[in-house]
Amino acid sequence: MSVCMMAGTPPDNFILPISKCSGTAIDQFSRLHVLKSNNQISWLHTILRNVKTSHGDFVFNADRLIRLVIEEALNFLPTHDKTVYTPKGVPYEGKAFNKGNCGVSLVRSGEAMEKSLRECCRSIRIGKMLIRHDDDDSSKPPKVIYVRLPPDIAERNVLLMYPLMNTGGTIHQSIRELKKNNVKEEQIIICTLFVTPDSVRHVCSDFPKVRILTTEVNEDCALHFGERYFGTDK
């Protein structure tokens, strides 16, 4: 079974990178894709960054932003031509996704993105990884604690889901684990909400063929996303 490669041309509604990090020298990474900013996305960012936002409002609006990212990530998956017929018997030349896609969420905050992926792709398989940092020595690289992946993941395109890339260490380690399972860099799309310039450099420098899809590049990614989403920040 051949490995399906990602479509090469990004959609028109992507830009590189947003102005909040102008001059950070990340525009060299052509596989970084940032959703084009608009009033809705800016409003969602404002709600999620507001320390006074209630738990219910945080979850509701985080789900909305996640859905935007997942929907756009699907544009990078390979498709083929498909002909269907309307109720009047008229042929319609359309598209269908190729088989061989999956999601991988990084426990715990990455699990917040599973709902949107399943709403878009009801039968998609989703694997999991648990990666932990050393609390006693932050200089040590994070360790892979738990991995559950589809057995044929080497033949799939992977939507790697993690809401924040602060240093990029967790994502970096997860890509290494995927590559150990024979997943090619070209098959990996990182789906995230917020990234820092340093995290982009860290990941893209070592894995130049991996795509990163996000809504904002900003020096401040200290949002405590997982704690606020799952209500464990109290």
- Gyration radius (Cα, Å) is 18 Å
Q: How would you sum up the global shape?
A: globular
Strand order of the largest sheet: 1-2-12-10-8-5-6-7
The DSSP helix count reads 6
Question: What structural category do the secondary elements indicate?
Answer: alpha/beta
Assembly state (oligomeric): single chain
N-to-C span = 49 Å
Task: List SSEs in N-to-C order.
Answer: EEHHEEEHEEEEHEEHEEH
Helix content: 25-40%
The counted number of beta strands is 13
Mean pLDDT: 88
Work out the strand percent: 25-35%
Low-confidence residue ranges: 1-19, 21-25
Major β-sheet, in short?
Answer: 8 strands, mixed
Tell me about this structure.
The protein has 234 residues and is α/β, with parallel strands linked by helices. Helix content is 28%, strand content 26%. The strands form three sheets. Strands 1-2-12-10-8-5-6-7 form an eight-stranded mixed β-sheet, with helices on both faces. Strands 9-11-13 form a three-stranded parallel β-sheet. Helix 3 links the parallel strand 5 and strand 6. Helix 1 packs across helix 2. The longest helix is centred in the N-terminal third of the chain and has 19 residues. The chain starts with 13 loop residues before the first strand and ends with a helix.
